[in-house]
Write a structure and sequence with these properties.
alpha/beta; seven-stranded parallel beta sheet; five-stranded parallel beta sheet; 37% helix; 377 residues
C-alpha cells in the first residue's frame, strides 16, 4: 500500500522540533512557550508506524528538524526500536532526542552518540512512583501478600481460614533484613531511602559508580564493587539498573546460585534483565522463597510458569504509573529540547559522555558533535 506523502514544512529561520505522540495534556503553558520559540512538526499517528516513519525520514517530509521530543510514554513509539536502520536516516544537525520514560532499552544510545545526537530520558519523573511500587513488592515477598489477597478474594471461607492460620509461619518482617540493590541511580537510591526509613533494612549496593560518602551515610549503605560479594550477603535482591538494546539478562542461574537459599527477588527495572526460566526454576526448587515482578521479559505477556505461583507477585509494569509521573515526563521532554536548542545543558542527558568519546575518535557521521551546540557536554 503506498504511503501518503506529507508536504514539507515551509522554510523558517527558527529551529524545528519533531513532536512524536499525543498532544500535551498536563502542562500546556510550557508547550506554548515552546511554540513561541520554535517551529513544531506534529505528525499524525499513521505516520509513526515504522514503514511510514522511515519513508518520511528518507523523503525529508518534516524538513531539517534539530530536536525530537516524545512527551508521552504510551504513544510516540509506534515505529519500534531506534536502531541503526532508523538513526542513519535522521537529518544532519539533529541535536537532541528527549523522551518520556526512565528506561532506554529500546533506543541505541551508542548509535545516537556516534551520530552526535544527545538522548535525554525522563529520569526523576518516575522516581517516587517506582520507589513506592518497589516497597509494595518488598512487603509482598516477605509477607506472602499474593497468597493472602487471593484467599480473601476467593469467597472460600476454608481458604481464608487456611491463609489466616498458615501464612504467618512463612511470613517475615522486612526490618533488619538485607536489601541488595543492583543500580543505585535516582530510582535505586530512592528505594534505599524508603526501605531504610520505613523498614530499617540494611542496604547493600552494586553499581559501576559509587555514591558519595555523604549519600551512603544517609542510608548506611555498603558498596560492593564485586557483585558476587553482595549477592552472598543479600536477603532480598532488587534490580534498579538500566537495560540496553539487545542486552543480556543479569539474573541468570549462575547469579541466583550465589544468593542464599530462601532469599527473595524484586524487579522494578526491565524484564529483559531476567532469565525467567532460571527464576522459575529457583522458585520451584525453593532456592528463592518469593519474587515480585513489575516488569516482564515478554510484555504484555507474563511467564506461564510463574503466573500461578502463590509466592510470586505480579503487576503490569505500573511502577511509574502515576499522574505525577506523566506530568513530569511531559515537562522533562519539553524542557530538555528547549534547553539544548537554546545552548544550555540538558537536564537528564544519558549519552553525553559517549558523544565526547565519539568526537574524540572522529565518528561524527555528518551530525553536529560540538559539545556546546549539543547542550550536554
Amino acid at each position: 500500500m503506498p504511503i501518503a506523502m506529507t508536504p514539507s514544512p515551509p522554510p523558517s529561520d527558527r529551529a524545528r522540533i519533531l513532536f512524536l505522540g499525543d498532544d500535551i495534556k498536563y502542562d500546556p503553558t510550557l508547550y506554548q512557550r515552546l511554540t513561541s520559540q520554535f517551529d513544531i512538526v506534529h505528525p499524525p499517528p499513521a505516520d509513526l508506524q515504522r514503514p511510514a516513519f522511515l519513508q518520511h525520514l528518507r523523503d525529508g517530509s518534516w524538513g531539517r528538524f534539530q530536536a525530537i521530543m516524545r512527551p508521552s510514554w504510551h504513544t510516540g513509539g509506534e515505529m519500534g526500536n531506534w536502531d541503526e536502520e532508523l538513526i542513519q536516516l535522521l537529518p544532519p544537525g539533529l541535536k537532541v532526542y528527549a523522551s518520556a520514560g526512565a528506561g532506554y532499552d529500546w533506543v541505541d544510545v551508542f548509535c545516537l552518540a556516534k551520530h552526535g545526537i544527545l538522548y535525554c530520558n525522563g529520569a526523576g519523573a518516575s522516581t517516587e512512583a517506582v520507589g513506592d511500587m518497589a516497597l509494595w513488592h518488598i512487603i509482598s515477598v516477605f509477607r506472602n501478600m499474593t497468597s493472602s489477597f487471593l484467599a480473601a478474594r476467593s469467597m472460600d471461607s476454608k481458604r481464608f481460614s487456611r491463609a489466616h492460620h498458615d501464612l504467618p509461619a512463612t511470613s517475615y518482617n522486612p526490618r533488619g533484613h538485607t536489601l541488595g540493590i543492583v543500580g543505585l541511580g535516582n530510582i535505586g537510591y530512592a528505594i534505599a531511602l524508603k526501605a531504610y526509613a520505613a523498614f530499617g533494612m540494611k542496604i547493600l549496593y552494586h553499581d559501576i559508580v559509587r555514591k558519595r560518602p555523604e549519600q551512603e551515610d544517609v542510608v548506611q549503605a555498603e558498596f560492593h564493587p564485586d557483585v558476587g560479594s553482595m549477592l552472598r550477603k543479600t536477603d532480598c535482591l532488587l534490580l534498579a539498573t538500566p537495560s540496553t538494546l539487545g542486552g543480556r539478562p543479569f539474573l541468570t542461574s549462575e547469579v541466583i546460585a550465589q544468593l542464599p537459599r530462601g532469599s527473595r527477588f524484586v524487579n522494578i527495572a526491565r524484564g529483559s534483565l531476567v532469565d525467567e526460566d532460571a527464576l522459575a526454576d529457583a522458585l520451584e526448587s525453593g532456592h528463592l522463597a518469593a519474587a515480585g515482578l513489575d516488569v516482564h521479559a515478554s510484555e504484555p505477556h507474563v511467564n506461564k510458569r510463574m503466573v500461578n505461583m502463590l509466592n510470586v507477585t505480579m503487576t503490569c509494569h505500573t511502577g511509574g504509573g502515576a499522574v505525577e509521573t506523566k506530568t513530569g515526563f511531559e515537562q522533562l521532554a519539553m524542557e530538555n529540547v528547549e534547553r539544548v536548542l537554546n545552548g544550555m545543558e540538558a537536564l537528564t542527558p544519558v549519552n553525553g559522555h559517549l558523544i565526547k568519546e565519539s568526537r574524540m575518535n572522529g565518528h561524527a557521521n555528518g551530525h553536529d558533535t560540538n559539545g556546546e551546540r549539543n547542550g550536554a557536554l
